[in-house]
Amino acid sequence: MKKSIILLFLISSIFGNQRDFLTLNKLKNYEFLNRSKILLSTDSHKLDSANYWLNFGLGPSYFGPLLNSSISYKFNNNILTIRYLNANEFQFNPGGSDYDKPKLKFNELGLLYGKCINYDNISLSLSGGFGFLEGIERGEKIEEGKYKKIELPQFSFPITSSLKLNLTSYVGIGVSFVSNINNQKNLYSGIINVYFGKL
Predict the structure, then answer these.
(1) What is the signed CA dihedral for 35, 36, 39, 40, rounded to 10 degrees?
(2) Measured between alpha carbons, how far is 19 from 154 in angstroms, rounded to an integer?
(3) Tens-binned pLDDT, residue by residue, of the chain (199 aa)
(4) What is the DSSP secondary structure assignment for residue 101, as one 8-state letter?
(5) Is the pTM for the entire model greater than 0.85?
(6) 41-52 as b/e: b if 16+ CB within 10 A
(7) What DSSP character marks residue 63?
(8) CA 14 to CA 21: how far, in whole Å?
(9) What's the CATH number for 51-198?
């Protein structure tokens, strides 16, 4: 009789432990699924909150109009931008007057990373990075109207500070202060921009 009671006790203990083990596994699986859903929903929200846009701008330089074309991608408070700046010396020559040579020009292609602060429809950002520069500057005077040609260095450091106002979810306007730092002739300018994209 005692042996039967002990055997029944052992059997019930084994099956009881198995039931507890299965219940614990179910709870762990349920918790894992819930955490996975939270992570997936968070990643989806991050993707939905990403923004991207094109912007075109116009401003002055020390020798002519400066054109700005950029494409940007923003995630959280981070911004990646590919920037192109172009400027050529403005020479209005209706009477056949000669201008100083060589003609000044500036072309920059830059990759910038920065941070932004958002408040309602307003965004303030500051970015910097590395740029490839092609340009011509005048050096020492050789003779009247002719100067030594100086080619600007290939690598430079572009910087952009921007204030953007979103008029709608897809159109915005703003102003930027842009600069290009190099060891020959730095460039600084203020630019008026228009933006198109998911703002």
Answers:
(1) -150
(2) 72
(3) 555 555 445 555 555 555 554 454 555 565 655 665 554 444 444 445 799 999 999 999 888 899 999 999 999 999 999 999 999 888 776 655 677 788 889 999 999 999 999 999 999 999 999 999 998 888 888 887 788 888 888 899 999 999 999 999 999 999 999 999 998 889 999 999 999 999 9
(4) B
(5) no
(6) eeeeeeeeeebe
(7) S
(8) 10
(9) 2.40.160.20
Token code pair at residue 97: 């007057």
Q: Output the 3-class SS for 126-157.
A: EEEEEEEEEEEEEEEEEECCEEEEEECCCEEE
Q: Which tokens go with 37?
A: 């859903």
Q: Which residue has the tokens 């703002």?
A: 199
Q: Which amino acid is at 162?
A: S
Question: Three-state SS for 79?
Answer: strand
127-145 core/surface letters (b: 16 or more CB in 10 A; e: else): bbbebebebbbbeeeeeee
